Amino acid sequence: MRNKLLIVSIALFLSACATDGPVINTVVQKVEVPVAVPCKAIVPVAPDLTFGKLSSDQDIFEKTKVLLSDRKLQLGYEAELLAALNSCIK
User: Fold this and answer.
1) 82: in domain
2) How many domains does the chain divide into?
3) 1 or 22: whose pLDDT is higher?
C-alpha cells in the first residue's frame, strides 16, 4: 500500500512538472509621446535705423523721408521676427 502511494505521488509530481506553466505574452506597443525640441530659428539682425543719426539742422522733409524709410525697415524686421517665432510655435 505504501509503495502504491509513493508511486502515485511521484506520478503526480512528475505530471505537475510536465505542464507548460504560465504563458507570458510579450506585446510591443507604439506609444507616441511629445518630446520638447529646441527651436533652431535664426534671429534676424536688427536694422540700422538712421533717424537717430540725423543732425538737428536738417529740414523737416529730409527727416520725414528718413522716418518713412526707417519705418519700412522696422516693419520688415518685425515680419522676420514673427516668421521666426511662428516657425518655433508649430
Assistant:
1) yes
2) 1
3) 1
